[in-house]
């Protein structure tokens, strides 16, 4: 379970399966937020707008080695991940109880309810992250440019299974049992009030809570016989007696009840749906990792368009090697122990591509035009190259 928490918390991200976005290449374009198409000059003009390769006093030849790194986190993913990470040890204790047929205490019970809602939040649209790195070598000789640039992206997208979350005896898993703790009455009268508060908070989780915890045979207890725990009063008594026997104070019992009440509205429909599912041992939560790396080998050239002063036209011819990878890592599966970043389903393919760009310095035609505007237009990869995936 800790693997679920850590991987989901730290690596939950998404990337488009259909198209690569335009990545920012170069420090000046990055400082301008990517608004470089109409002012493209120097060696990296070939990438931004090949029309900017035209020779001028300010647009000199040379070499440029741009490198950029980008990381995006969306949908409040960091806060959500941090909260889940804080619950890791408690949730791990719940799985240990499920496998060994031992009871859960009030802290584990509240952790189950809270973390269930946080895990479900990971499925919200818009949650994710994207990592990108771009870099290369770019040369400009008068109106001619040559370059080799690489653009690599990796996205991670979690899918959290909140249906197969049962803690009962299914598929060889022992399930939660309170075999040593009384459920019909309290062994210590000082726990009576706290147990009543806990019972009220458990009521907010709905009638499916007992089947989710115990399955159709219910959780057996010291005096439960065949039927075992059948309602929230008995469950609250068993947890309170567990607390008493293990040095957990009534105040800690009340804290757990407060946490359960806080998250009960969100947790109740999940518990209802999960009651018909399998236990955690059959959970299908997974992390999908998608990566793409594109290496562009390009040659560009620009022409002065005599029909309009200050207008230039540029074009690139390119060969692109696209390497793609996609894998789905089931981090709760007993048999799936591979590294999430072992991208087994990889493809590599070469495709031709072309760019065209126009750049117009308006004041070359109209010297008194205010604000010195420039107009740029670029169409990258006009043949829409597609790569194997």
Short description:
31% of the residues lie in helices and 26% in strands.
What kind of assembly state do the chains in view correspond to?
Answer: single chain
Query: Treating each run of at least 4 consecutive H or I residues as one helix, how many helices?
Result: 11
Structural class: alpha+beta
What shape does the CA trace take?
Answer: elongated
Q: What's the β-strand tally?
A: 8
Mean pLDDT: 84
Uncertain parts: 1-18
- Main beta-sheet annotation: 8 strands, antiparallel
What share of residues are in beta strands?
25-35%
Radius of gyration: 31 Å
Order of helices and strands: HHHEEHHHEEHHHHEEEHE
Helix content: 25-40%
CA-CA gap between termini: 31 Å
What does this structure look like?
Strands 1, 2, 3, 4, 5, 6, 7 and 8 form an 8-stranded antiparallel β-sheet that branches. It contains 11 helices and 8 strands. The protein is of the alpha+beta class. It has helices spanning 2-11, 27-31, 45-48, 77-86, 88-100, 106-121, 192-203, 209-214, 232-245, 250-274, 362-365, and strands spanning 62-64, 67-74, 128-141, 144-159, 286-304, 311-329, 345-361, 374-379.
